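During the second year of the project, the team shifted from modelling isolated chains to modelling whole assemblies. The rationale, set out in the original proposal, was that interfaces cannot be judged from single-chain predictions alone. As a representative example for this report, we include one of the complexes processed in the last quarter. Its constituent sequences, exactly as entered into the pipeline, are reproduced here:
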Amino acid sequence: MRKFCTLVAALGVAFALPACAPSTNSGNGKVHLTVLSWRPEDTAGYKKIFAAYEKSHSKVTIDFKPIKATDYLTILPNELKKSVGGPDVVQLKPYGPLQSYVKAGNLVPLDGQVNVGGWQDKVLQAAKGKDDGKLYGVPYALQTLQVLYNKKIFADQKIEPPKTWADFTAACDKLKKAGITPLATSGLQPWVLAIDHQIFGATRYGGNDFEQAVLTGKKNFTDPDYTASLGTVTGLKPYFPDQVTAIDYPDAQTLFTSGKAAMYPGGSYEIGPFTKTAPDIQIGFFDAPPAPGAKVDHALTSGYVDGSYGVNAHSEHKAEATELVKWMATPEFGQLYASTLKQISVVPGTTPGDPLLAQASQNYNDHGATYMMVVDFGYGNPLGRDQEGLALQKMLGGTSAADAGKLVQKGISAWFKPSGG
Amino acid sequence: MVQAQRRLRRPVGTGGGRPRRRVLLTFLLPALALYTVFIVYPLVSAAQYSVYSWSGNRQDGFAGLANFRDLFTKYPLSEQVWRALGHNCLFFIGTMLIQTTLGLTFAVLLHRSRRGKRFLQTAYTLPHLVSPIVVGYLWSLMLNPQFGAINAALRDVGLGSLAQPWRGDPHLALPVSIVVNAWQWIGFPMLLFGAALAGIPDEYEQAARVDGASSWQVFRRVTLPLLTPVLGIVTVLTFIGTFNVLDLIYALQGSHGNPEFSTDVLGLVFYRTAFENSDPNAIGQSCALAVCMFVLIFGVSLAANRVFRRMEERVR
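Output from the structure prediction step:
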């Protein structure tokens, strides 16, 4: 019995000791910062980026600690609640999902500490508190939405990237006749349908003008232009894969990377993984041409900020952590980030290393539009993106566009109040 | 002297009598500690969290029953909770009809058969050993309209018209989930019924046969009533399992119970409310839902247990 008790005590001590040790230690006079992220696939890239920071900040070492994306949001609230031993810098979801952390006081306000002069307001909005307007993170990447296409299939079928809607549907018809699925997408996942809508329907509902009209209460989602824009997506059903309502997100990706589908409406974030999965595939992209009845006479490249990096209010090294996020707002970080991780950095004056992303970034600057369901209508339950996706699923099942519009309005008006005007 | 003799007759650890309190505690404490930390503590804290309002992970003021009221009055929760509850009920009924009926049938057939009994018992029980998440992904591949084996097989045998968007049709998605769930768990009732059948003395059947009872009459009038205790256990466990179902549907249909929430169940509503919710009061609302689910499952299980006990007594 005594032996047993000794064993239990020894095990207890063995488990308790590491738990008591702070996650940020100061061995050799160096400050050790922990950066929490949901991107395990970017570990090598971030190590390279942070090595550059450590070189110029000899008293700081950085531990990039990635957590599986699906687990991140269940773990982050607990990590930020730890009074000791929590992370110093955390990756934050943009817009609505950031607000819970702001309201809980988990993050350090960065106004006046980070140089974001010259940054677009729309970019900074991703990292701002909705109620207090303060900046709680440094945004890092912009994602753009467009139609990706397989260059070889287009060349084989003698198709050029379409400039008009008629060209687009003619290309789809030609591909279908050749036994190739024109557009790979998922009807099973509402958020994918919402992206489809932003890509094909933004010109029809009127892009940023409509967004502003809803924000100020002049229009809502029962507006005929908006409901017609929903119809733009469901009107493409003949060009989607067979039984599209049962096609999952990974299925749609596989259809495109395996060469069974010629086009893939999606985000710029897909280009990297697609080229990795299918190195032989030559990807090009184009903006969806203005849809019939479009309120905007030119194509739009929709975009949104992917997230930001903020400082944990319980960090034991707030000064050093703030210094690190300050660096994340510099062109040095922006360029390193863009080149190493093949993303579009939001730091002004940086260019993505990848030529496709450089073009997407250029397009967004020339004729960009806001992905409004994420940027403006993602601040409550239900998220605008999910509600719009649900409405589109119902339309694919036979619901009218007018009823779908009512459903979107019902969901968003559950928490959104227009600013008046 | 007497005590010494008793000790001699009963060496330590070979059973008989009640072990010393210290030994009992040593064996019970680890399990009790784990049970307290992982079951009792979360339950009690969820109940406490549910009566407070929250700003993210910060507990604000006492909210009374406001979070519970929100569940039933605030869109979209008000719609999702009732719809999901309905789906849980359908899931339970469907599982009882398919899984329990087939489980009982297989148990009866295997009880009578002499050849391949072990093999079939193992085969039917194997999916039980795989994680529901893995089963969900496996079936999502098989049911895939483009690359899946099921539609391909149907087309190959000339039954292409029966090839359906199994996971994408709002009318089919829930029944398909019920069938996949039954496929995984069918071995469980089968084993329980099998064990109970083995415990019924042959004389009962023989006596009924002498009285001129047919096979069906023997089963209906003799075997089935004697299976009432196991039927009770299977029903209650199926109820608990189907009202807690989450992982399989998450893997098959995603966190939104796609398409159009047609496979949404209470577990998924809880998951979304807790982890995919932009409302700062996510913890309060999700804990209120967890408390409601616990009360429902615990209450109904207790009541069902009592009903089956009475039925058992009547059989005796």
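The two ends of chain A are 78 Å apart (CA to CA). Chain A is about 45% helix and 15% strand.
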